[in-house]
Fold this sequence. Notes:
The complex is a heterotrimer.
Chain A: H1 2-17, E1 23-28, E2 37-41, E3 50-51, E4 73-77, H2 79-90, E5 99-103, H3 112-119, E6 123-128, E7 132-137, E8 140-145, H4 146-149, H5 152-155, E9 167-168, H6 179-189, H7 193-204, H8 212-216, H9 241-254, H10 264-268, H11 276-290
Parallel strand pairs in A: 1-4, 4-5, 5-9
Antiparallel strand pairs in A: 1-2, 1-3, 6-7, 7-8
Chain B: E1 7-12, H1 19-27, E2 33-38, H2 46-54, E3 59-65, H3 75-92, E4 100-105, H4 112-127
Parallel strand pairs in B: 1-2, 1-3, 3-4
Chain C: E1 2-5, H1 9-16, E2 21-28, E3 31-36, E4 63-70, E5 75-78, E6 86-91, H2 93-106, H3 114-121, E7 123-128, E8 154-159, E9 162-167, H4 170-176, H5 184-199, H6 210-216, H7 222-227, H8 235-239, E10 246-251, E11 256-261, H9 282-301, H10 311-315, H11 322-329
Parallel strand pairs in C: 2-6, 6-7, 7-8
Antiparallel strand pairs in C: 1-9, 2-3, 4-5, 4-11, 8-9, 10-11
Helix pairs in contact in C: 6-9
Amino acid sequence: MLDLKTKLQNEMTRLLNENLVDVFIAFKKEDSPLRPQPAFFRNTKELAQLEYNGLCQNNLANYLPKYSQETRIGMVVRGCESRSVNALIIEKQHPRQNLYLVGIPCSGIIDLKKIINSVGEEVTSFEEDEDIVSVVHKGQEIKFNRRELLHDSCLNCVYPNPVNADVMLTEPLPEGDPSIVREKVESFQELSRSERYEWFRHEAERCIRCYACREACPMCYCSECFVDHATPRWSESTVSPAGKHAWHIIRAFHQTGRCTSCGACERACPMDIKMTYLTDKLNFDMYENYEFVPGMDEKTQPPFASFNMDDKKRFVL
Amino acid sequence: METNPKIILFQCQWCLYSEPDQQWVDHELPPFIHLVKTPCTGRINPLYILNAIQGGADGIIISGCLPEKCHFKEGNLSAFRQMDEFVNFLDHIGYEKSRVRFIWIDLQDRGRIQREISDFLTQISILGKANTLTTRIEVAAGGLNA
Amino acid sequence: MYIIQNNKLKQTLIDWSAKFDVFAPQQVENYSQYQPINPEKELILSDIHNTRFPPKAFFLPQSEVMLKFNAKLNKLEDYIPKPKPRILFGIRPCDAKAIILLDTVFCTEEYHDPYWKNKRDATIIIGMGCNDPCQTCFCTTVGGSPFNHDGLDALITEVDGALFVETFNEKANELFYSFSKATKEQEKHVHLIQKSTKSGMNKAFETKGLKQNLDQIFESEYWTQISESCLGCGVCTFLCPTCFCFDIVDEIYRNQRVRNWDTCMFRVYSQEASGHNPRPTRKERTRQRLMHKFSYWLDHVGEIGCTGCGRCVRYCPVGLDIRAMLSASYEAESEVVNV
């Protein structure tokens, strides 16, 4: 990882020195332990703050819609992030020619919550290599297999390699098996109907409508979210079960054909709510029914944006 | 079921071309079937379906025109993929797929809507009252969240 | 000072629940949360962290019914419930101090919010001191301490498996009078531990001159820099024990007028009916949050509006740390204003 950070720093230095980008989005060193932050580099002096490791848990594509179309943006992208970038390009959120993407094939994002649940909250340092993660908690060193700490979305990852990078910093990694997602979805469907509903209800119950999931998601950039729409008011903001269910269901549904399963929503949630089981199902259906994977290129429209006359044969009349 | 089911009928305003059929829907629908007329099935947002379910709908029928016969050319087509996926999605979290029926009515097919409704009511009576996602209950006054 | 043995605590709480609704932190998923006491569940009192969800919800619920109406019958009904007497057990001094700060908003001399007041009057607050403050806690920096008394009717300090209880008023005395009293020796020992824990905490940022500095750099580019990564979600505000902003909505479906928590971090919070928004971008909103807590609160009531609980630091999705932001603000260039 150290070598990777150096490569990234060199590339960023080149881009900034040659004025090829107006801003480069990457990560910077933590202010509080184990929390590297998204950062926006505009000159090479700031590069001393650069950080890149498995704890960089945010999807940087989230920041793209916030810039004007003319801004020349450089970004470091991993697999799912690069597909989010494509999905945003398809929706005209930023022109491809004003993007410079530095690709890093991703070996998975560490789920900080897994570390904390395992050892406790006072972790003061973190080190990793390809296979082992070691943390220090209250003066004691504890080692983990890197894979056991990966975020659940990363365990199901099929496309770790950036699909649209201008330059790749390391060798591509082997792609995952799409059947992993099928297994996950089907094993959930094997539960009885009331068990499935109980799982959904139990997860949604903790929701505090902070909308961290929405803000962390690169595809949620609507200037007015459906929950804020007041005339007429379709969705109540009361933290009742009805309100929370509607929030989770509709937000997930609005991601159909757009979600790249990055898991940023789950990592952002302060109440540890699981929600990727919802988007996994939607993504799976898009793959099964329309052979569509979001963000693989910057042209193909998602299924909901089009219709094929062959479709009608599949549906109940 | 002892009590009548609560059914919502989303009807595209063009799909019942025949006068008798439209008259029947406007005036002779059983009182437990609530009619929501839309200019096109393309107008139906999944959120409306969810609102109906949360309000306690035991069944939902959406009736629209045949694919090539939409008054707005392609309105019903854009709705279709979404409605189909939404219903699958709700089934995934526990609201039975068969409680939502989507029908495309051929303009020549007189009496279709009555037949469908009658068949649907039979099906719903087998399924019983909906017991998932029907959550619009009062906020406990002064209650703590979560 | 009274003593309760650790293994007698649960029974005490269960005994109290004959007359009171007793709430204490218990396990929910991987964290602790205030819930009615359940004999089957373990109490989580000396966890290194306080609960994720703040106890302000006991006085200002996230959703609260204010009125009930019936549009068809043209009827209106005030809804100001008086809750059953209750005990909030195991609250941390930072959260308790926050409730005192919120009293300056909801329960002043001239005006009090009846919804708040009824709940406040019905609640006894028993605190649990922090023996092992965590790395994100900074109560001492903002005028508090891990064993502060503000807002508490009684404070418990755990020492060697025994709970030492200091009571501060009659309400608390009535609850504890039947317990054995600590010796003078034990009292001294407990106070020593409290003092040394407090002095063991580091200062996170300088508060002397902080307000003046923040006021001076109001127009600075500094705010653009630090707000760039902020997502504008509601995590810091909803989990904050001193944040109190709310939005009142008429929910027609429910025939109710409901008061919900709102957050200045959302764009729509300051959106006006004309369409104008005085805080149009992330910069103004992030600046607002810091200025409100560390400058405007001082203007209004003379106290910093933050009690150093650290939740905003731990749960910010992008790792923003308010302590670092405030420390760095001293280096920000202030704008020269031409008078």
